[in-house]
Amino acid sequence: MSARFRPAHADAPWATLLVAGAAVLVAILLLALPLAAVFVEALRRGLPVAMAAIVEEDSLAAMRLTLLVAAITVPVNLVGGVAAAWAVAKCEFPGKRLLVTLIELPFSVSPVIAGLVFVLIFGAQGWFGGWLQAHDIQVIFALPGLVLATLFVTFPFVARTVMPLMQEQGRDEEEAAATLGASGFQTFWRVTLPNVKWALLAGVLLCNARAMGEFGAVSVVSGHIRGETNTMPLHVEILYNEYQFAGAFAVAALLALLGLITLAAKTMLERAGRRHSRSAT
Amino acid sequence: MSATLASGGPSHVAPVPGLGLTLGMTLAWVGLIVVIPLAALAIKPWELGVAGVVQSLADPRVAAALGLSFGAAFVATLVNLPLGLLLAWAIVRLDFPGRRALDGTIDLPFALPTAVAGIALTALLAPNGWLGAPLMAVFGWQVAYTQAGIVAALVFVGLPFIVRTVEPVLRDMGRDAEEAAATLGATRPQALGRVVLPALAPALLTGFGLAFARSVGEYGSVIFIAGNMPMATEIAPLLIVIRLEQFDYAGAAAVGLAMLLLSFAILLALNLLQRALRRGRR
Amino acid sequence: MLHADRAATRRSLLTALATSLATPALGQPALTLLNVSYDPTRELYREYNQTFAARWRAQTGQVLRVNTSHGGSGRQARAVIDGLQADIVTLALAYDIDAIAERGLIARDWMARLPFNSAPYTSTIVFLVRRGNPKAIRDWGDLLKPDVRIITPNPKTSGGARWNYLAFWGWALRQPGGSAATAEAATRQLFRQVPVLDTGARGSLTSFAQRGQGDVFLSWENEAHLALEEFKEAGLEIVYPPFSILAEPSVAVVDANADRRGTRAMAEAYLQGLYAPEGQALAARHFYRPRDTALLSANAARFPNMDLITVDGVFGGWAAAQRIHFNDGGVFDRITAR
To answer: Which residues of B touch A91 (CB under 8 A)?
Structure first.
């Protein structure tokens, strides 16, 4: 037969081309261009200017602060997220739905509100304001405030990647381990964790990316003190507001690189995870 | 033990241990970081008294800001529906060079810090930017510092949500339904419109809800490109920041609470709509 | 760039990054000063901090780091009251520092501790307009023309905004038949023509110059000159109105914090340095009017002579002005209420 058989539901080649072309165009306009703009603007005044902005004293302090905040936030949300995932997926108790809703709540809350709530509690006019001032403890305008705001914003990330997977995997293996006499921790470490490790890592990665990149929430609780309470995104804003555009974009480019690395790592993890679940079945 | 298992009676298999510890940890974690802070938000505005709260929120500026935040989020998410569907379709159903690269870039708005996205979009869409200049020259449109700019930024922010919720459903769907429709005589557009789209509707709704919730509260991506003019291009989160800077804590909390309650109402409505859709299809 | 240069830059960048990231994060160098300042002084204090740190190190061998925070003057004062650990405040007007003194953080007699009422430089308010001054804005009265949109920061948070407001009020009083009533009516009209109130002078400059909002920006003199440099392509112009107000941004050591942190000696030296010839020259370079009369006349081209009213002369001092106009329930709240 000379005619090529094509199932009735398939698309004509021109339709495929059109759709693919349109998709690529959208992706370029919407996604690739902004990314490219960051790097082009960063290098607009030449590489030396961009580098100078990055190794400048305040910029390095901002980097250290960003790393420190992430280093505190991610483990806390990791432990909390895994505990929550375990409780929901492997155990029985009333009010599961409420708990899951609460855990996912921070996704629907504006980052500015996330910062606001901690000012309401720890700010000078807040619930503990008087007590904190009397004891000379600084929460707002200092590291603890930054950490709290970031904790709120990155709260659901780990739980959200791990919980559905744990639920999907069910309890059989854990129950079997329990009947064989394994303690809770042993069960968790030897049975559950290996099954979810790829999802866990992906969740940690996303949590970290958001913790380092958070802007709105920390903007509210930070004192905007150059060199002390400015994280990298806040430092970008300060440079931008002082019309040092090349410098602002240079630091932004560094953050964008972080984002790209996160993306790449996440894609690799997802592929590894798929391979793992395929081989396990 | 084996006798119990073989009898098929009520299972006496040991429940998975660790409930006490993990539940305790979870409750402490959720309580301290989410519940108590949000309780503070719910309580603070009432310091002004009910009349005070009403007066604080009756300010036309508040209505304008809330209207802008919710309205722009709505428009942007609507725009994202066809765009997201297009991208999801291209990734799942088609095969072309660069498909994998496309798949990789979809999550960019997730991974990119919001402030970086904000200044990048502003640079692109400003009157002298790569996209802004031609738009100004050819159509006379100004995007940056107008409401259109806010919508553009929110389209960027919300796109991955739609794609990533539609993608798995599309993948699982396979082609069976379309094949069946074709054998029953449906044309391609009919099959797409009457079979595929309704099947994707719940996923699209979910994606809409996620993207909408994110867009309403978005700050970093929008604050640079918005004009910040009260009554015109001032988003609600900015109004909260301004009230905080004027040390009107209760007023800021009032706007925050209003935002939160409105968002929840809309998400609840979407949820109900989704359930109705599912029931309707059965 | 030569290949060798590029490699060298890369190496030094990596070394710098590695060594700095290796040092412990916060609580690093032992000596830091925090200068909480108002909005437009970013460039001034960036340069002054480096000069001062270098001089302090030469004199005492101590490595010092001066940090700054910038924002609307009123807002900054409240932040210090709320616990922002400032060693020094350099704000837009004396009243904001008085507010901090009121809470016991600064001695009540702070103003007398340094020359010229603790104001090492002065400034004034001028108009910044678009290329060619298309709306012909030359005097305060021109601001009320129906098609003119004015950019000014928010008097509730910004010091510069309060100087703007009082300068305009002073103009209204000077008009034939001028009184508190006519001034209030005129000011009410003025603010009806203000499309956006940013929290600080720098934010307003961004709105005016970068976002293209408004026809005229009521600006600090130094901020206006900065704008000319930063936004060359926009072709902005400075218009000196026939008269304006003498603005005296004040400085003070925050006694409670400086004593607790043991930084008093440094803080006092920091402020005294602003009066020294080097500090005065630096201020002049950044378009602040120095107190040193010789320097001022040497820079006559940069700082034209102006007819200047004072807050004490027209308004009976800042305490009265703040209470009547800017506190909650004052004139400003009245004229902007809907």
So the answer is: 15-16, 18-19, 22-23
